[in-house]
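Write out structure tokens for SCO2 protein.
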Amino acid sequence: LRQRLAVVGAVAGTVAVGWLYLRHQKERQRHSRRLRDLRALALGQGDFQLLDTEGTPRSKADFLGRWVLLYFGFTHCPDVCPEELEKLGRAVELLERDPQLPPVQPLFVTVDPERDDAAALERYLRDFHPRLVGLTGTPEQVRAAAAAFRVYVSAGPRDADGDYVVDHSVLTFLVDPDGLCRDCYGRSRTAEELARSVRGHMDTYEPLPA
């Protein structure tokens, strides 16, 4: 009887090991498929073809390998954009206090290319974070960039002086080193909350396979 029980136990153990192995293999295959799907998504998600303040062409590919905080706005914005850029810069500064964290690249994309040329962006952005990169382009390029991130943009009516306000989504996007949009933050989030969220994404980040 003991011998029979031992045989039964050995067989059951072998079956259990085999089942666990198959389950592990299935999980690995599912994880690999998910990573491949994410890589394919990253290649087409939120791309843009714009110019920086030095006139250098920039696309999303130029920022692969870095964490990016991206905000869409315009230099003639009376209050919301300055507040959001100050918050963005503050969040980057909080993250920079920890030398073990990878650097974060702050980006500003104008939604008002008619008035926001390279010179206007350079003058405007110097009041915020020193590493903040400004991007502009043709109206078609700017519209395409906003659409890639599903940002709403609508220019209002012009006043007697030809001035106007641009209504747009107030969101800051977090893009990971693989080019995937990991999170977005609305106006109600504080700089401390942004920094804490970015740190959390960094802590759980796993690079996608090449």
